[in-house]
Amino acid sequence: MREKNIRNVLVVGGSTLVVSLPKKWAEEIGIRPGSQVVLEREKDKIAVIPLEKYKEPMKEKKAIIRINGKNANSVSRLIISSYINGYKEISLVDNNGITIELRNSIKELLKRKIVGSEIILDSPTEVKIKVLVNQEELPLINAFRRMYFLTKNMIEDAGHALLNWDIEKAMNVLQLDDEVDRFGFYIVRLLNTYAENPNASSEIGIIDLKEALGYRVVVKFLERIADHASNISKFILESEKRIDELILNRLHEMYTVASEMFEYALTSFMKKDYELAEKTISKAKTLSVNEKELEQAMVKAPVGSHPYVRIIYESIKRIIDYSSDIAEVTIDLNIEKVLDKL
């Protein structure tokens, strides 16, 4: 809520202008006798900010990428790298002209992989991209929750597709994979911004460096989990026939363990729950039993009825492994909660 208080400006020493601050306002924002304050001017306004609360404004980073005959994949990597490293404006330049194919590739990349970006200049020799998303409007925790729910939906749909050999669900998983990547890149961008300017922590939603490192690792694990949910869906789409029923049931039992572990791991991380993280890791021990049952089912199944089984099994195993890794990160970040301090 905005408040107004009119004060007279006084002259001291013949050249210095002085204005007094309302005592109540000053105390509420931490200004006391002897405090240091920063005066910051913006156009026709002057702000008074306690020194300890002052944050240096972040400079708008601009990148110029010389295309010079690079292919679409190389250009895409350069755009993503510039984006996650915090560049606000990315110019792609080729004095010999940018092909229509490359322009279309750039537009598709922005739509599929980059949160909050627009092309603000599209000339024969230059394409300029502006990142419009505001980190205060989409802080880290909101972006992370979105990434988590997208990955959760992918796991649920991939499990349904596996059990019911549902082509539509499998296709939906592949479509969600790009969304997971988009938020993953955005979160890495926020974390890189924090690394360059720790004063931006409150805007981004980070408490400290330790927490930032935890998020960076978990985001990578989330991307990998989403990739393996996509792999399972791809094999369902590519398979010419349904997997043998007995093998399919064993695979789905394992997948249920993987899905539960994922849910436990992410919940423990977001709630900073050490005990739930321990429970997640313990649950992985049930995998060895399921693996033996799967081997027995494969022996009993008709020859040639399980060409994709081993690959699907490995993807399920990786989801379990990455969920365990997330739980371990949670334990590392919250170990002080269970230690007796000297």
Automatic annotation (TrEMBL):
Domain SpoVT-AbrB, chain residue ranges per copy: 11-56
Gene3D superfamilies for the chain: Phosphate transport system protein phou homolog 2, domain 2 (1.20.58.220)
Xref: SUPFAM superfamilies: AbrB/MazE/MraZ-like, PhoU-like
Cross-referenced Pfam families: MazE_antitoxin (PF04014), PhoU (PF01895)
InterPro entries for the chain: PhoU, PhoU-like_sf, PhoU_dom, SpoVT-AbrB_dom, SpoVT-AbrB_sf
Annotated PANTHER family: PHOSPHATE-SPECIFIC TRANSPORT SYSTEM ACCESSORY PROTEIN PHOU, PHOU DOMAIN-CONTAINING PROTEIN
NCBIfam families: lp_hng_hel_AbrB
Name under which the protein is recorded: Phosphate uptake regulator PhoU
Provenance organism: Fervidicoccus fontis
